[in-house]
Amino acid sequence: MVNIGDTAPAFTLKTTDKTDVSLADYSGQTVILAFYPGAFTGVCDKEMCAFQDNMSKLNQSNTAVLGISVDSPWANAEFSRKYNLEFKLLSDLDRDVVKAYDATFVGLGGIDGYMSANRVVIVVDGSGIVQHRWVAENPGVEPDYDAIVSFASSL
Fold it and tell me: Global pTM?
């Protein structure tokens, strides 16, 4: 379990244009890791749009958002285009990052054995230390976006 005060596990994932992005690329910056179960799935749409709606405040506080799902780069690209997202969506196709961050959900959509990301939000400070962790009771539950944005902006 990744807890508050732990060093955030390192990762490198593919963006929507299939380039690599690493958590280390954001050293010195606060990062919100927004794990989401799947593109175009209602609550995930609301979640990514809520972060997008807060991008000006987050940019002012040197805070980046990285959306992470097990979706393909192509699905994430279309998702990003549809909602004009200004932050990167990353594809965890091997599910290594969702496992490392204890952010897995098994059985999404009633499909036995299907492992996706759960709805989990982790805030990592500029030194790479986990400062906040929120985990949904189930993928249909949303976090308090204002509280997360305020907390991340205060670091």
Answer: 0.95
Q: Residue 80 and residue 142: Cα distance in Å, rounded?
A: 19
Domains observed in the chain: 12-154 (3.40.30.10)
Mean residue pLDDT of the chain comes to 95
Is there a catalytic annotation at residue 44?
yes
Q: Which segments within 17-146 are labelled E, that is strand?
A: 20-22, 30-35, 63-69, 88-91, 104-106, 115-117, 120-124, 130-135
CA distance 102 to 45: 22
Give every CB contact of residue 22 below 8 A, 6+ residues apart in sequence: 10, 11, 12
Which tens digit of pLDDT belongs to each residue from 13-31? 999 999 999 999 999 999 9
Strand order in the sheet with 130-135: 20-22, 12-14, 88-91, 63-69, 30-35, 120-124, 130-135
Catalytic residue among 32, 39, 44, 120: 44
